[in-house]
Amino acid sequence: MTLVVMGATGKLGRVAVRSLIDRGIAPNEIVAVGRNESALQELADQGTTVARVDYSDTEGLRRALDGATAALLISGNEMGVRVEQHRNVIEASVAAGVGNLVYTSVPNARETSLFLAPDHKVTEEIIEKSGISATILRNNFYAEGFQADFTRARDTGLLANSAGEGRVATAPRAEFAEAAAVALAGREWDGKIYELGGDHAWTYAEFAATAAEVLGKPVRYQNLSPEQEAAAAHDAGVDEAIARRISVRNAGIREGAVDRITDDLSTLLGRPTTTLASTMRTWV
Ligand SMILES: NC(=O)c1ccc[n+]([C@@H]2O[C@H](COP(=O)([O-])OP(=O)(O)OC[C@H]3O[C@@H](n4cnc5c(N)ncnc54)[C@H](OP(=O)(O)O)[C@@H]3O)[C@@H](O)[C@H]2O)c1
């Protein structure tokens, strides 16, 4: 068996490789693909085969993917070019005879208005058209993306944004990584689409209440209009690109793009997902 992990040098990928090994996959059956030399060295030190390949390197991809039982494509992080990068990986996977391609997408990728979705929608369509057997893991937001809010709650006792009453079904990044390892290693998940997220979808009012409980101090949530949110970010001197990212993320939450609860993640993990309160306790 050969299992290829592309994006193995990133935060999700490193945990996915670790999870494969923890699940009993022999390290020499894992091919870890990435570019970062020191991260690749760490993966080699765990006994995996490593391949330093950029997604633009068609030949390198074909070599790394050759005859793989299954391969995991962790969506890239270079906005504007990643669809073409994904296309290269998909075409190389077909040419290399990969048995099943696992791809990390976003919730409800084909229909959602979520800001991040267009690249994922197109990638899912390219995968479908290619005819390759594929497993689509539509990951909800990583809980870690909300750690800054927890820190703000601790420092100021106030959370103010435009997410309103919207809900988000976060789970720790490591659990999405573990689910990816499970889907990569077992053939029973092949050819299916999974909507992965936490077992509970929380509102910011609940986030504030949970933070208050964990911190042992009052935390208040204040709902802002998108305009008030933009003005507050401007007044606080928040970098424009960061303010924009936060505002579109909050729009996704407010508009219900990430509120769906399924048991897909807990099914892949074989246990309930970690609660927000437990995750917050690791941030104290
Ligand atoms: N659901 C969420 O809340 C959420 C949040 C953030 C991101 N994401 C998505 O999930 C993905 C994984 O998250 P992460 O935290 O693991 O991100 P990350 O730490 O930035 O890892 C990205 C990985 O992609 C690899 N990569 C990017 N461009 C590449 C290229 N041109 N050629 C080869 N490898 C390339 C990187 O390789 P090198 O480091 O070796 O260059 C790295 O291994 C992100 O890329 C993003 O699409 C989701």
UniProtKB/TrEMBL annotation:
Listed SUPFAM superfamilies: NAD(P)-binding Rossmann-fold domains
Coiled coil regions in record: none
Domain NmrA-like: 2-250
PANTHER family xref list: NMRA-LIKE DOMAIN-CONTAINING PROTEIN, QUINONE OXIDOREDUCTASE 2
Protein name, UniProt field: NmrA family NAD(P)-binding protein
Origin species: Streptomyces chartreusis
